[in-house]
Design goal:
Blueprint: E1 2-8, H1 13-22, E2 27-30, H2 36-39, E3 48-55, E4 65-68, E5 71-75, H3 80-85, H4 87-92, H5 94-100, H6 106-111, H7 114-119, H8 128-133, E6 137-144, E7 147-154, H9 155-158, E8 159-161, E9 164-165, E10 172-179, E11 185-191, E12 202-210, E13 217-225, E14 232-233, H10 235-239, H11 248-258, H12 268-289
Parallel strand pairs: 1-3, 2-3
Antiparallel strand pairs: 4-5, 5-10, 6-7, 6-10, 8-9, 11-12, 12-13, 13-14
Helix pairs in contact: 11-12
Length: 308
């Protein structure tokens, strides 16, 4: 169970940083608490005690978003529900809506935040592969000698291992910036022990843009989670398709290249088969999302016994 002596609800970043400074090291920052509360129970974290809990969910600046050039700037407190339902966000980053469908249930989506999902640094986090595919960059802030100091880190550099990040003491993730994906088709694939309310065994985000005639891959972005210590971009799989014709053999090669990234300690062969099929299905699904059909592409996801 979660215990605390004081519960603070700051309304500005300045107030939040002052509370962080005042409470030294014995505090916990939360926004939606959808990871903290399930962890603070018997069998996991047990009884968890903090002198202070600092709830940043009421800081309005962290719940806003805007388009800046071809990038979307999102406050860290944007909820998974907003990613699923807001028309502007669905237009510019639709893969996040496709990911959010798989995210727990309606009540949790209303509470859970994008920043919290990324900071939690789960290898199987649903939001991380889409954000990696969209070249996400995090803004980290802290207060030092009365001034707020800001730095930025690409998401792939921020994540260092299961539950581990480059977030320093006294810092908060305040914003997440990513590419607008207008003109791209997208797909999100996930498998777990159940359809929802479950951590991913494997999840994949796929983003595709095509040439004007619809016959070549102009850009391909693939990101994979649940198979290693951190979610990753599948750079080799992407490179073998970019500027190439849409061809079933090339898509198969891209899928085969992906399976070597499975580093899980359990169910490796199962995960390899899932990754192989997910890459194929994700690429084809992203193509179809552009209202393009390819009758000559084999969409039959068959068992593949030899991954090379």
């Amino acid at each position: 169970m979660l215990y605390y002596d004081q519960y603070h609800v700051p309304e500005t970043l300045d107030e939040a940083f002052d509370l962080i400074h005042t409470n030294g090291g014995n505090y916990k920052v939360l926004a939606g608490a959808t990871d903290l509360l399930p962890w603070a129970r018997e069998g996991r974290g047990g009884d968890v005690n903090y002198e202070s809990v600092i709830d940043i969910s009421k800081i309005n600046d962290l719940s806003k978003w805007q388009l800046q050039g071809n990038r979307i700037n999102l406050g860290a407190n944007v909820t998974i529900s907003q990613l699923l339902n807001n028309p502007f966000l669905r237009k510019h980053i639709p893969v996040m809506a496709k990911s959010a469908v798989w995210f727990a249930d309606d009540q949790i989506r209303e509470q859970a935040t994008l920043g919290g999902n990324l900071v939690n640094a789960s290898p199987a986090a649903d939001a991380t592969p889409p954000m990696l595919a969209m070249n996400a960059e995090l803004t980290l802030e802290r207060k030092q000698k009365g001034k707020i100091i800001q730095r930025k880190l690409p998401l792939d550099e921020f994540l260092t291992g299961p539950g581990k990040t480059r977030l320093e003491a006294g810092e908060l993730v305040t914003r997440v910036e990513c590419d607008s994906m207008l003109g791209y088709g997208s797909a999100f694939e996930k498998v777990g022990h159940r359809r929802s309310l479950v951590l991913s065994t494997v999840c994949l985000a796929a983003l595709v843009s095509l040439s004007d005639d619809g016959q070549e891959f102009e850009d391909v972005r693939l990101a994979l989670g649940g198979v290693g210590p951190v979610p990753i971009r599948l750079k080799e799989s992407e490179a073998c398709l970019i500027s190439q014709p849409i061809d079933s053999d090339l898509i198969d090669k891209s899928a085969v290249l992906a399976v070597k990234h499975v580093q899980s300690r359990t169910r490796q062969e199962y995960r390899r088969e899932v990754v192989y099929n997910f890459v194929k299905r994700g690429i084809l699904g992203a193509c179809k999302d552009l209202n393009t059909t390819f009758a000559d592409i084999d969409t039959d996801m068959k068992h593949r016994g030899n991954y090379g």
